[in-house]
Amino acid sequence: MNTHFPAFPQTPEILPAVATAACNPVDGAGAVFLCKGKEDGTMLVGLGAMARGTVSAAGLLLFLSKDNGTTKQLIDAAFYGGFNLSTTATIPRAQFTRFSESTPFRLGKDQELYVGSMVALPAGFVFEAEAVHF
After folding, report:
1. Please, how many CA atoms are within 13 Å of residue 101, restricted to the half-sphere of its CB?
2. Model-level pTM?
């Protein structure tokens, strides 16, 4: 929205997505939708992922799209080490490091983020973004 007033962060939100299929790091095929920038933009301050099942090591991917997901550009990646799911295990969390509270990522209106894993996991990887909308 074009106004004469500055846009201040209004609505904090946790944005989840679950990826089960393997994702192609070149073109983003297999990536799942995470979020879309709001009218006055969205600021992301964190992104992490956890496995919901036993998995070997996996590369986790973050893509940006400016055309409703037709074209996806790889903008960040994180490593998820091998993990054996059990009732006594703590599930590790992989953290993407491109943005944080001190270095947020600003997503413009209608720009979209997609996430994926380079390894298929039937139980899925749960991605969780921390965002503030303007």
Report:
1. 1
2. 0.91
